[in-house]
Write a structure and sequence with these properties.
The chain is mostly helical and 202 residues long. The chain has nine helices and no strands.
Length: 202
């Protein structure tokens, strides 16, 4: 199946180069997330439950790399796409957070787990697709009236090119440092609790 999809992508490149490249990148992305078990759900869930922050730190580092990539494109003259955000982002983030933890899979996680043969993630994927479709259908009616009342924020415009990039990296560094401190505190408390249990057992 893998060889067939790669061959299909290569053949498609002759007639539709963008579609063929998208197919090949999709295959590469799928292999990457499946082999590395990249999942936003496990990244945030493990951080609070087990104290492991490896995946969360990897996501922050990935955002740092993508930020400099996007910044370079903007400096070359590519027009940035600035989306409106407000309380809807906080409410949607909370709903998404609860949803992915309860369902056990996020945008990436449910896809590779479903293909691995975990049938219950087929239902997670179905719910994900239906929810995304409904959101896309009603988005303009819900968000557009609110978006017209507020100005868009562009850090590169407000703080200058270098200032916007520095603020972005400062916030990413703050998030990375907070995860490091949380991991250290989590395992220190766990070690103390284990010592108490051992002392009580003796």
């Amino acid at each position: 199946m893998f060889v067939g999809i790669v061959g299909w992508g290569l053949l498609t490149m002759f007639d539709a180069p963008k579609l063929g490249m998208a197919m090949l990148f999709g295959v590469g992305f799928g292999l990457l997330i499946e082999r590395a078990q990249i999942c936003f759900t496990s990244a945030f869930r493990d951080m609070w439950i087990t104290g492991r922050t490896h995946m969360a730190k990897a996501i922050i580092l990935g955002m740092a790399v993508s930020a400099i990539g996007i910044y370079s494109y903007v400096q070359l003259g590519v027009s940035p796409k600035i989306m409106w955000a407000g309380p809807n982002a906080v409410i949607g983030g909370l709903l998404f957070g609860f949803g992915i933890v309860l369902a056990g899979g996020c945008e990436t996680g449910w896809m590779y787990r479903a293909v691995e043969g975990q049938v219950h993630f087929w239902w997670v994927g179905l719910g994900n697709v239906l929810g995304s479709t409904l959101l896309a259908y009603y988005w303009d009616d819900i968000a557009q009236p609110l978006a017209t009342n507020w100005d868009k924020v562009n850090l590169l415009t407000s703080l200058g090119n270098e200032g916007g990039l520095l603020v972005t990296y400062a916030l990413l560094a703050l998030s990375f440092g907070s995860m490091f401190l949380w991991e250290k505190r989590f395992f220190a408390r766990k070690a103390k609790r284990d010592e108490q249990l051992l002392a009580e057992a003796v």
